[in-house]
Specification:
Helix content is about 90%, strand content about 0%. It has 2 helices and no strands. The protein is an all-alpha fold. The protein is rod-shaped, with a radius of gyration of 17 Å.
């Protein structure tokens, strides 16, 4: 996993949220619920991925330092 994947997940989450807001304004409450749920799931996945990437990078940096 890389930081690019993390960024991709956040972009997708934002797009779903824009769709949810549009659906809400248009009165499509079913669509708004679906798109907001997708946005939330992607945001959570992005957060977990981000922490995982940071942890792996931290471990890699520690391993590269001479003891």
């Amino acid at each position: 996993m890389s930081s690019r994947y993390w960024e991709l997940l956040w972009k997708r989450a934002r797009r779903f949220m824009v769709r949810a807001e549009r659906d809400l304004i248009e009165g499509d409450f079913d669509g708004a619920c679906f798109n907001s749920e997708q946005a939330l799931q992607l945001a959570v996945k992005a957060t977990i991925t981000g922490f995982t990437v940071l942890k792996r990078e931290s471990i890699a940096r520690k391993a590269s330092y001479p003891s």
